[in-house]
Amino acid sequence: MGFTKSDLFTPEQNTVSLIFKALGHPARVAILDYLLKVGECICGDIVNELPLAQPTISRHLKELKNAGLIKGNIEGTAICYCISQEAVATIASYLDSILTQLNNNNNCC
Amino acid sequence: MGFTKSDLFTPEQNTVSLIFKALGHPARVAILDYLLKVGECICGDIVNELPLAQPTISRHLKELKNAGLIKGNIEGTAICYCISQEAVATIASYLDSILTQLNNNNNCC
DNA sequence: CGTTAATATCGTAATATTGCAATATATAAA
DNA sequence: TTTATATATTGCAATATTACGATATTAACG
Question: What is the pLDDT of residue A5?
Answer without folding.
Answer: 81
